Every structure is written in C-alpha cells, then in structure tokens.
Amino acid sequence: MSTVLYYLACTALGACAYAAFWPIVAWFVATPRIFRALQARAFKTPYWHLEGYMERWWLFNPIKTSYVQDNPALNTVRVVKSAKYPWCPVSIRMHHILRADLARDPHNHPGSFRTIIGQGWYFESRERGPRKLRARGDTSVLRHGEFHHVDQVSPGGVWTIFIMWNWQTTWGFKLADGTVVDHREYKDGGAS
Q1: C-alpha–C-alpha distance, residues 29 and 38, integer Å
Q2: Where does residue 27 rank: exposed (0-12), middle (13-18), buried (19+ CB within 10 A)?
Q3: Which of 34, 88, 110, 182 is most buried (most C-beta within 10 Å)?
Q4: 57, 47 in Cβ contact below 8 A?
Q5: Distance (Å, whole) CA 131 – CA 141
Q6: Where on the tree of life does the source sit, at the highest rank (predicted)?
Q7: pLDDT at residue number 99
Q8: How many C-beta atoms lie closer than 10 Å to residue 115's C-beta?
Q9: How far is CA 76 from CA 68, 72, 79, in A?
Q10: Nearest to 60, CA basis, from 27, 81, 83
Q11: How far apart are the first and last CA of the chain?
Q12: Contact at 8 Å (CB) between 128 and 91?
C-alpha cells in the first residue's frame, strides 16, 4: 500500500511542478529586457510573413518546406518539412500578430503549439470554453485538432513566442456544420 501512496504522491507532485513550470517560463520570457533580447535574436532569421496579418521569425530549429512532385502524370505534389535539427521535435518562432482573424470560422494548426505572450494582448475563442483574454506573461496550449479564432488584438499588435511540435497535417477551417476545409480551399474573406 505504501508503494501505491508513494507513486500517487510523486505523480501529484510532478503534475504540480509541470503546471507551475510554464507560467514561470512565460513570466520570465515576457520581462521586457528578456523579450527585447529574444526579438533581436529573432529578427536575424526572418520567416515568410503573412502580409497585413502576421510577421514571423525563427528563434530555434527552423523548418524548411519543400515541394516534391510525386506523379508528374497526375500533377500531384507532396509537401516535405525538414527541421534544421531533425532530432529535436520542437521548433520556436516569434510572431507579431497585427490584426484579428478576418475569417468567420475558427482554424486549427498543423500540430500542437504553446504560445507565450510577450507584449500586447488578444482575445481568443476556442470550441470548448469561454472567450479568453491572453495578455503579456500568459501562456496557453492548443493541441492538434483543436480550433480557435483570434477575435481582437491590442493596438499595435501582439508579440508572441510560438512553440510548436507534433506536425501532422496542414491547417484548415471548421465550418458550422462540422466539416473541415483546407486553408487553400477556404473562401470566406481571406486567410486567418
């Protein structure tokens, strides 16, 4: 019986330590001096910006996207993603979100991610749960297959650290009837 109690105590302590870990990291990262240093580092490695919506830079383990033609007769193309450090399952970017999502429907991401708010704020809606304010020093996770929508962004935009892993698909939009439409086929007033 004591072994079971020991196991449960260790599990509970581990869960508490994990739950406390990310808020501490987020608080540290969002301190102005640390965040400015991360911005300076990120600005050296720009990524493809989404014009008028989001500016993006790599902080760690950039992912290169290439397109391989599988079958020239069928004109099929396969997307291949390769990380700088393939042994590492995590990549990190800095995002400057300039405006709220224009799309009516919520979108997902190709994998899971954690965001840390470094400067500014935004309101976010998710399928499950109330609309939430995410502000400087906050952190949250969105798992692969979950959908969200950025409803409002602070004046001047919001700066975030975007930690991603578990890439599985491309991203898309979830319509009111529950169907998911690939972002390349979505037709509701622009990309999100």
Answers
A1: 8
A2: middle
A3: 110
A4: yes
A5: 15
A6: Bacteria
A7: 97
A8: 22
A9: 9, 7, 10
A10: 83
A11: 53
A12: no
Whole-angstrom Cα distance, residue 167 to residue 16?
27
Nearest-angstrom CA–CA distance, 142 and 105: 16
Residue 85 identity (one-letter amino acid): Y
Break the chain into its structural domains and give their ranges: 2-182
Q: Nearest 5 degrees, angle CA 19-CA 26-CA 134?
A: 95
Could you tell me which residues come within 8 angstroms of residue 69 by beta carbon, excluding any fewer than 6 positions away? 75, 76, 77, 78
- Tokens 């892993």 identify what position? 165
Domain 2-182 = CATH 2.60.120.10: yes
Q: How confident is the model at residue 15 (pLDDT cuts 50, 70, 90)?
A: low
Residue 56: strand pairing partners: 95
pLDDT tens readout for residues 36-90? 999 999 999 999 999 999 999 999 998 887 777 777 776 666 666 778 898 999 9
